[in-house]
Automatic annotation (TrEMBL):
Binding site for pyridoxal 5'-phosphate: 122-123, 257, 318-319
Reaction equation(s) it catalyzes: (8S)-8-amino-7-oxononanoate + S-adenosyl-L-methionine = S-adenosyl-4-methylsulfanyl-2-oxobutanoate + (7R,8S)-7,8-diammoniononanoate
Species this protein is from: Nocardioides jiangxiensis
Modified residues (N6-(pyridoxal phosphate)lysine): 284
Pathway: Cofactor biosynthesis; biotin biosynthesis; 7,8-diaminononanoate from 8-amino-7-oxononanoate (SAM route): step 1/1
Keyword line: Aminotransferase, Biotin biosynthesis, Cytoplasm, Pyridoxal phosphate, S-adenosyl-L-methionine, Transferase
EC number: 2.6.1.62
Protein name: Adenosylmethionine-8-amino-7-oxononanoate aminotransferase
Length: 439
């Protein structure tokens, strides 16, 4: 078997490879990445480096590559671990990268979150978290509590239980209604700049839903402070405080899905610093985008409840749990992040996004412009023309991946001011191109 020559690469891809949320019979255009370094990608429409264009990655490879590409310290961490061993089973064995990563997560996450389960991906982390909650309720004598409370507008992954707590109407998984378990949905939290009266009205509605179903609810699961793929929707921290109070009052566990929000993206290392959950899911940027890895961090009390259930053990064990390569690069990624002034970096990027995107609020066809941390979002009044928007963004010098009615960016933290400004210009171009294409 030989590597495909460049001219065959994209043709074979189109004929045989499925891409995320893409038709098999009418596949969308893809571009070949022929190089990457820092915050930049080299993209080719032919598959050949000869015609590649250099663009800033405004997506951080779906929010994971916070340190950019070919980071020397992360590269070296992977190479060093390959020279030792690449993988061993985690059943009955352990190794230094997993232990070192576990220690780092216990130290970095809020006090009391000190039990770490290493999973394969974000969706699996949510699966594990939901399983933890259900087993805990069985262990403390409440096996009838088998449903979850969440809010509209959320997104938690593509496997079955995460799909079941994703918005059933506005989300991506409405076609599975009747197949998925049916959980309980409260209203979406108000916008991040909502006043006290609006927050209080939402809190009253949330409490009413929780009270009505309290006898059957095992836990609350939400993306804290910022809903991601469900709409890039930031909301007030006061809503999280309400969720914490309701969980405590009604005997539920609170699960925070910080797969998108963790590692500084919102301006907080973890939103859980503001309101502590009982179970915390981490992923995406955990390894700096190098390898797939996730973690579920929970409390001693939750662990004791699980141990008291009829199985006596948490019933989950992925083959690649605690993969040494992934753990080694995750350890180095955390060192890179925490030994720099990441707060100032996120504030710098967020400030330039906010300033640069503000004028789009006045553009006809734009519904909203919002920013939080190192996230910038333009919401249109109708669905984005993805092809027109993508082509325009690349022509302006950046890679963006719009979806639904959103043109947005989550830049790598290594972006210079000039690179952030290029992303801003690309969002402007993508927004205008989409509006013109759908006029």
């Amino acid at each position: 078997m030989s590597d495909a020559v460049p001219r065959d690469l994209l043709a074979f891809d189109r004929e045989h490879l499925w891409h995320p949320y893409t038709s098999m019979t009418a596949p969308a255009q893809v571009r070949a990445v022929v190089g990457a370094s820092g915050a930049r990608l080299w993209l080719s429409e032919s598959g050949s480096p000869a015609d590649a264009v250099n663009v800033v990655d405004g997506m951080s490879s779906w929010w994971s590559a916070i340190h950019g590409y070919r980071h020397p310290r992360l590269d070296q961490a992977v190479k060093d671990q390959v020279d030792r061993f690449s993988h061993v089973m985690f059943g009955g064995l352990t190794h230094s990268p997993a232990v070192t990563l576990g220690r780092a997560l216990v130290e970095l996450t809020p006090e009391g979150l000190d039990k770490v389960f290493l999973a394969d991906s974000g969706s699996v982390a949510v699966e594990v978290a939901l399983k933890m909650v259900l087993q805990h309720q069985r262990g403390v004598g409440r096996p009838e509590r088998r449903r979850f409370l969440t809010v509209r507008g959320g997104y938690h992954g593509d496997t079955f239980h995460p799909m079941s707590v994703t918005d059933p109407d506005g989300g991506m998984h409405g076609m599975w209604r009747g197949v998925l378990p049916e959980h309980v949905f409260a209203p979406r939290p108000p916008a991040y700049d909502a006043g006290p009266a609006e927050v209080e009205a939402w809190a009253t509605a949330f409490r009413a839903v929780a009270d009505e179903h309290a006898h059957e609810l095992a836990g609350i699961v939400v993306e804290p402070l910022l809903q991601g793929a469900g709409g890039m929707w930031p909301y007030p921290v006061a809503c999280l405080q309400v969720m914490r109070e309701v969980a405590d009052e009604l005997g539920m566990l609170l699960v925070f899905d910080e797969i998108a929000t963790g590692f500084g993206r919102t301006g907080h290392l973890f939103v859980s610093e503001l309101v502590r959950p009982d179970v915390l899911c981490l992923g995406k940027a955990l390894t700096g985008g190098y390898l797939t890895l996730a973690a579920v961090v929970t409390t001693e009390a939750v662990g004791r409840g699980i141990s008291a259930s009829e199985s006596g053990v948490l019933m989950h064990g992925p083959t690649f749990m605690g993969n040494p390569l992934a753990c080694a690069v995750a350890v180095e990624s955390l060192r890179v992040l925490t030994r720099t002034d990441w707060r100032a970096t996120v504030a710098r990027i967020g400030g330039r996004l906010a300033t640069g995107l503000a004028s789009l609020r006045d553009l006809p066809g734009v519904k909203d412009v919002r920013t939080i941390g190192a996230v910038g979002v333009v919401q249109l009044e109708q669905r984005v023309d993805v092809k027109a928007a993508t082509d325009a963004a690349i022509a302006a010098g950046a890679w963006l991946r719009p979806f639904n009615d959103l043109v947005y960016a989550m830049p790598p933290y290594v972006c210079t001011d000039t690179e952030v400004d290029t992303i801003v210009a690309a969002i402007h171009a993508a927004t205008r191109a989409s509006l013109e294409a759908t006029a």
